[in-house]
Specification:
39% of the residues are buried. Strands 1, 2, 3, 4, 5, 6, 7, 8, 9 and 10 form a ten-stranded mixed beta sheet that branches. By secondary structure, the chain is of the alpha/beta class. The chain contains ten helices and ten strands. It has helices spanning 2-27, 43-57, 70-78, 93-98, 127-135, 161-171, 188-195, 226-230, 250-260, 262-270, and strands spanning 32-38, 61-68, 84-87, 102-116, 124-125, 152-156, 183-185, 201-206, 215-219, 237-245. It has two domains: 30-108 and 240-270, 3-Layer(aba) Sandwich (D-Maltodextrin-Binding Protein, domain 2), CATH 3.40.190; 111-237, Periplasmic binding protein-like II (D-Maltodextrin-Binding Protein, domain 2). The radius of gyration is 24 Å and the shape is elongated.
């Protein structure tokens, strides 16, 4: 009798261990490779979250992250060449027509700051003045209260989410287009590097990239701050997205969940963006 009891207890113990191992297997994110590309605005977020995910959540996962711009990220994920596309603008109707199964998930908010060199005495411009400058209607800083010097314009490439929201919120509001003479750069980092070394430059840049080497000017007296983004007082605000083609696979969903977790959203805030509510 005692022997049968011991055998029964051993069997129960084995079953419990087996169930626990099975449960752990299903709970643990599967390993594998994840490819993410797109917006250079979202890039710092995906890079840091990928590092933390591989370090803390699933070391057996390999995540590759690259930029290229929002349009590139959307196209690559739409064509099934990557697992997650990153975008700093909303999907266009034409993109949804081409890839109707795209599924965007909001992971944060950002604003586009108007930036100049720190030595520039200009601290505030109206939205219309900014549109006139980027359209080439105003070409000298003296015309807006600055020194007698030419305004050197820097813009982003076509397809950039940062350029898209700037055109929508600033240029299109006054029926204007960005001047062809503007110097075109393909990343926020390149824009920042140029403005930081050119006293007469002016550009637009994701707020998350603004540091002590630049000066973000106010628009109509409203500063480009996280507080003004949250209150929606600042006029150039956008949502940051991670996009999959159809329902994400297990690994992609696990990564998106991590970005939306408390730890992931802390990364969003630490990098100068605004977390989703």
């Amino acid at each position: 009798m005692q022997r049968n009891t011991i055998i029964a207890m051993v069997i129960v113990a084995i079953v419990i261990v087996a169930i626990s191992l099975i449960a752990l297997q299903f709970a643990r994110p599967v390993g594998g490779e994840l490819k993410i590309a797109g917006s250079t605005t979202v890039l710092p977020i995906t890079q840091e979250c990928a590092r933390l995910y591989m370090e803390k959540v699933c070391p057996c996962t390999r995540i590759s992250v690259s930029g290229g711009g929002s349009g590139t990220g959307i196209q690559l994920v739409g064509d099934g060449l990557i697992d997650i596309g990153a975008a700093s603008r909303d999907l266009k109707p034409s993109e949804l027509d081409q890839w109707p199964d795209l599924q965007p998930v909001a992971i944060g908010k950002d604003s586009v700051a108007i930036i100049v060199h720190p030595s520039n005495p200009i601290d505030d411009l109206t939205l219309e003045q900014i549109a006139q400058i980027f359209a080439g209607d105003i070409t000298n800083w003296s015309n807006v209260g600055g020194e007698d010097a030419p305004i050197n314009l820097i813009t982003r490439e076509e397809g950039s989410g940062t350029r898209g929201i700037f055109e929508e919120k600033v240029m299109e509001s006054f029926g204007k287009e960005i001047a062809g003479e503007a110097l075109v750069k393909t990343s926020n980092g390149e824009v920042r590097a140029i403005v930081a070394t050119d006293d007469n430059s002016m550009a637009y840049l994701s707020l998350g990239y603004v540091d002590g080497t630049l000066k973000a000017i106010s628009i109509g007296g409203i500063e480009a701050t996280i507080e003004n983004v949250l209150s929606e007082d600042y006029p150039i605000i956008r949502t940051l997205w991670l996009i999959t083609k159809g329902t994400p696979n297990t690994l992609a969903q696990s990564f998106i969940d991590f970005v939306l977790s408390d730890e992931g959203q802390q990364v969003v805030e630490e990098l100068g963006y605004t977390k989703v509510e």
